[in-house]
Amino acid sequence: MKKFIAYNEQADRGLDILSRGAFLTSAHNGKTNVMTIAWGSFSFAWKKPVFMAMVRPSRFSHDLIEASGEFTVSIPFSDMKQAIAICGSRSGRDTDKIAAADLKMLPSEKINTPVINTPGLHYECKIICRQQMTPEDTAELVKSECYASGDFHTLYFGEIVSSYVIE
After folding, report:
1. MF terms per GO, please (predicted)?
2. What is the extent of the structural domain holding 157?
3. What CATH code is carried by the domain that includes residue 112?
4. I want to staple 84 with a disulfide (CB 3.0 to 4.6 A). Which of 21, 39, 108, 139 is the partner?
5. Number of folded domains in the chain?
6. Residue 124 has what pLDDT?
């Protein structure tokens, strides 16, 4: 059963689960990819509810988000450690991670990118701003701990156009 909620109605629960692993889905031109995320935030900016997702330019998802201008976030309520591990350790360029992780997809309400059909929080997002991180603007500690390879994230600010819980 799907229940529509305000974007921040279960934000605390969502952030708690997100820190242990959730899913970002991107799609364009008949290709759909799911990647694992553990970093992100809910906010209110530019008079809109926003989910900020971080995606490295080296990721296949980055290509799809750039092409489509949208993404979805699925934060599972149940244990999906195996699927999170698969989606976080393989590339969508050469692996169908949806099949490998045995994920079922569900059409979104307001955008073209699907969500994962699992109990949890789901956010449909349209990009309203993107910002490429740079070494010059990043603290030394963050650079040394998170960017030793130099693959700095693109920050995607997605307007949350629909949010719901699937029970």
Report:
1. FMN binding; oxidoreductase activity, acting on the CH-NH group of donors, NAD or NADP as acceptor
2. 2-166
3. 2.30.110.10
4. 21
5. 1
6. 98
